[in-house]
């Protein structure tokens, strides 16, 4: 690929530009103006609406408007590849910068690849935003994989949230990934005045669409009114939910206190910000939340929900605002009432927010963006690694210690199988030497364990059969009722409950994997038997881990290990269940597992294909459990929270569910193995 020169033109590809109807459109306006001021030639290709010219000049920017159609109230550009290629050739385009995941973007990628033009993407939104319309939601899992694959078509991916940048870096091995915030135009001096002491004004600015969750704010405001009638709510923006939200306002009986201000031009927003006492962004999905940063420039405390990825970046809880539950209006109402009662708290949080927003100025953001552009030119002096988001990676197989990521047999990008982290993807690679599997990116799993769906699991009449079946298997393999047992792994406390109910004298349990440091510090208890239920895969150093586990076991004690056999797992998009990302770090192949255990001072008594969920009772087997998520959102959460009524919701899946319900106990799982090992005397 030929690198462009500094003098080459930059093409901005965006479905929203002037007038900016979204934060993305406003951002592209700012960056285009700034880059022109810095001497760059900027071409914008965007949507065309009724009455707009096909081509125009705007603040030194050449704007091309192409054929477009409205989809769910938002215009989608549908240019042909020929039109795109003509514009690129006419202006000697050297860099293409896309800002929307759209049909136009797909056309542009094809043209740019063919012409050898480097591509940049600013990821302003996640798949959750794209699938807000009801008809799009069934396509969500497919779209996630598609979007993740699309990211790898770009030379550079820019994320407007540092947390999202780290997520993208975990799965994207083809692109350079950077964190560059959206820019704030405002300084805080654009409008003068201070809000009146009363009434206490709550301010919202944004689209009135489902993902913005404005209904939560209305319900919380109704609760706030019960504490004081000297309050008002200003809602600035328009969207598909405007009528529905006005009806909710009437239903709640608060229309006297709520003003729907409609669309306000971006340059006029300072007049709104200076009249508010607190700003609320109740969104369910938000990659950054530019309006929250703008509100901080006017020294407003800001309240956001815990659902948005950029929440921890925007808010230091209690210092410049609050983070609240996205589903609980009572918590939001309580925070609003606290700010209403305490002007000093409002002032201190407003000052802290003003300071925090200072790094998001147009100049600072433009400087970093320009570095990305310059790194792509023939005379570049800037190195990619200076700009890339840093993520620790696992490059060497911990089992055979010979295989490497660079010499891998294959790799795949898979999604998390839990609801809270559905947007996240991870790279799994297979060792070419021993066939084991490894997760590429290193990071803290604390937040993932805190929100694990298995914490919601409890013993019921269905899974009791599974737990009792596994207990019977262990008794058959030599476990005595009087043995002191340590159970480590998923749902260990539930196994403990069932095992003790069957008469097992002593059962200790560890649900969440401990670090090797914690194992090393633990007092030696000389257990008669230890179970590692999908636990070995969750440690960074399996060899050290097994030696530390061995310390806790009596000589001649039994070690039960339940784990997938990596050599039997085919790397395909539907393997997320077996790989259970991001929890499983290293998954051994059966042969290497036996070698590993032997080297730790054990001898193998039996290794067999066996999953503890498999029973002879109809519908209680691993295959059936794998079908349950598809009656919900395809996650482990859906399986654990499954109810019989969910079968009606997706009735067309019933034949397959019924088939595996009866046949799954006969054609059992062929991926997972259970090994019984005895510690050498």
Structure description:
The protein has 681 residues and is α/β, with parallel strands linked by helices. The protein folds into 3 domains: 9-179, Rossmann fold (3-Layer(aba) Sandwich); 200-357, Rossmann fold (3-Layer(aba) Sandwich), CATH 3.40.50.2000; 448-679, Vaccinia Virus protein VP39 (Rossmann fold), CATH 3.40.50.150. It is built from 26 helices and 26 strands. Strands 3-4-2-1-7-8-9-10 form an 8-stranded mixed beta sheet, with helices on both faces. Helix 10 crosses helix 13. The longest helix has 15 residues, at 23-37. The protein is globular and about 80 Å long.
Short descriptors:
681 residues, alpha/beta, Rossmann fold, eight-stranded mixed β-sheet, six-stranded parallel β-sheet, 34% helix, globular
Question: Summarize this, please?
Answer:
This protein is of the alpha/beta class.
List the SSEs and their pairings:
Blueprint: E1 9-13, H1 23-37, E2 42-47, E3 55-58, E4 61-66, E5 68-71, E6 74-77, H2 81-90, E7 93-98, H3 103-115, E8 119-123, H4 127-130, H5 140-151, E9 156-159, H6 162-171, E10 176-179, E11 200-205, H7 214-225, E12 231-236, H8 242-252, E13 258-262, H9 269-273, E14 278-281, H10 290-297, E15 302-305, H11 311-314, E16 321-324, H12 329-341, H13 343-356, H14 362-375, H15 384-387, E17 410-415, E18 425-430, E19 437-439, H16 446-450, H17 463-476, E20 484-489, H18 492-501, E21 506-510, H19 516-521, E22 527-533, H20 542-551, E23 553-564, H21 576-579, E24 586-587, H22 590-599, E25 602-609, H23 622-627, H24 636-640, H25 646-649, H26 654-663, E26 672-679
Parallel strand pairs: 1-2, 1-7, 2-4, 7-8, 8-9, 9-10, 11-12, 11-14, 12-13, 14-15, 15-16, 20-21, 20-22, 22-23
Antiparallel strand pairs: 3-4, 5-6, 17-18, 18-19, 19-24, 23-26, 25-26
Helix pairs in contact: 1-14, 2-3, 7-8, 7-12, 10-13, 17-18
């Amino acid at each position: 690929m030929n690198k462009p020169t500094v003098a080459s033109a930059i093409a901005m590809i965006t479905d929203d530009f002037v007038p900016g109807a979204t934060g993305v459109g406003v951002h592209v306006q700012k960056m285009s103006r700034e880059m022109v001021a810095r001497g760059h030639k900027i071409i914008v290709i965007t949507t065309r609406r009724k009455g707009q010219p096909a081509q125009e000049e705007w603040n030194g920017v050449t704007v091309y408007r192409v054929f477009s159609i409205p989809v769910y109230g938002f215009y989608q550009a549908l240019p042909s590849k020929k039109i795109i290629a003509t514009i690129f050739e006419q202006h000697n385009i050297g860099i293409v910068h896309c800002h929307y995941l759209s049909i136009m973007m797909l056309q542009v990628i094809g043209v740019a690849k063919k012409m050898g033009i480097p591509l940049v993407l600013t990821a302003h939104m996640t798949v959750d935003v794209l699938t807000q319309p009801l008809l799009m939601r069934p396509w969500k899992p497919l779209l996630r994989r598609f979007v993740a694959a699309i990211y790898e078509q770009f030379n550079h991916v820019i994320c407007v949230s540092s947390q999202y940048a780290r997520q993208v870096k975990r799965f994207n091995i083809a692109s350079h990934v950077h964190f560059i915030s959206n820019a704030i135009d405002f300084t805080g001096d654009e409008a003068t005045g201070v809000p009146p002491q009363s009434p206490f004004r709550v301010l919202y600015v944004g689209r009135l669409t489902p993902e913005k969750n404005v209904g939560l704010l209305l319900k919380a405001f109704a609760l706030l009114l019960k504490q004081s009638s000297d309050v008002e709510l200003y809602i600035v923006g328009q969207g598909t939910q405007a009528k529905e939200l006005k009806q909710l306002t009437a239903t709640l009986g608060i229309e006297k206190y709520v003003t729907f201000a409609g669309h306000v031009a971006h340059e006029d927003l300072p007049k709104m910000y200076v009249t508010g006492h607190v700003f609320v962004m109740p969104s369910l999905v938000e990659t950054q939340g530019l309006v929250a940063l703008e509100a901080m420039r006017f020294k407003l405390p800001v309240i956001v929900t815990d659902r948005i990825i950029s929440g921890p970046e925007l808010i230091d809880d209690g210092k410049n605002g609050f983070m609240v539950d996205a589903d609980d209006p009572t918590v939001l109402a309580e925070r609003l009432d606290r700010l209403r009662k305490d002007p000093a708290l409002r002032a201190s949080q407003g000052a802290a927010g003003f300071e925090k927003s200072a790094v998001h100025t147009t100049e600072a953001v433009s400087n970093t963006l320009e570095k990305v552009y310059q790194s792509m030119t023939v005379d570049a002096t800037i190195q990619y690694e200076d700009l890339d988001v840093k993520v620790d990676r696992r490059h060497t197989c911990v089992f055979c210690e010979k295989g490497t990521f660079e010499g891998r047999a294959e790799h795949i990008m898979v999604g998390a199988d839990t609801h809270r982290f559905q947007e996240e993807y991870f790279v799994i690679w297979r060792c070419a030497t021993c066939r084991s599997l490894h997760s590429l990116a290193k990071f803290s799993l604390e937040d993932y364990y805190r929100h694990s769906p298995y914490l919601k699991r409890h013993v019921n009449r269905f899974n009791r059969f599974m737990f009792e079946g596994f207990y019977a298997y262990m008794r058959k393999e030599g476990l005595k009722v009087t043995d002191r047992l340590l159970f480590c792994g998923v749902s260990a406390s539930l196994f403990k409950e069932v095992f003790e109910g069957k008469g097992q004298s002593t059962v200790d349990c560890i649900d969440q994997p401990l670090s090797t440091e914690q194992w090393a510090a633990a007092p030696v208890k000389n257990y008669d038997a230890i179970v590692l239920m999908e636990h070995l895969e969750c440690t960074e150093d399996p060899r050290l881990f097994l030696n530390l586990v061995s310390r806790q076991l009596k000589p001649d004690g039994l070690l039960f290990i339940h784990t997938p056999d990596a050599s039997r797992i085919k790397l395909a998009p539907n393997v997320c269940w077996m790989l259970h990302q991001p929890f499983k770090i290293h998954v051994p192949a059966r042969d290497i597992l036996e070698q590993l255990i032997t080297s730790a001072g054990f001898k193998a008594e039996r290794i067999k294909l066996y999953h503890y969920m498999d029973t002879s009772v109809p519908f209680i087997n691993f295959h059936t459990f794998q079908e349950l998520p598809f009656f919900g959102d395809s996650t482990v959460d859906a399986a654990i929270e499954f109810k019989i009524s969910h079968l009606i919701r997706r009735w067309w899946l019933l034949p397959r569910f019924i088939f595996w319900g009866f046949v799954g106990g006969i054609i059992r799982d062929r991926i997972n193995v259970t090994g019984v090992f005895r510690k050498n005397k």
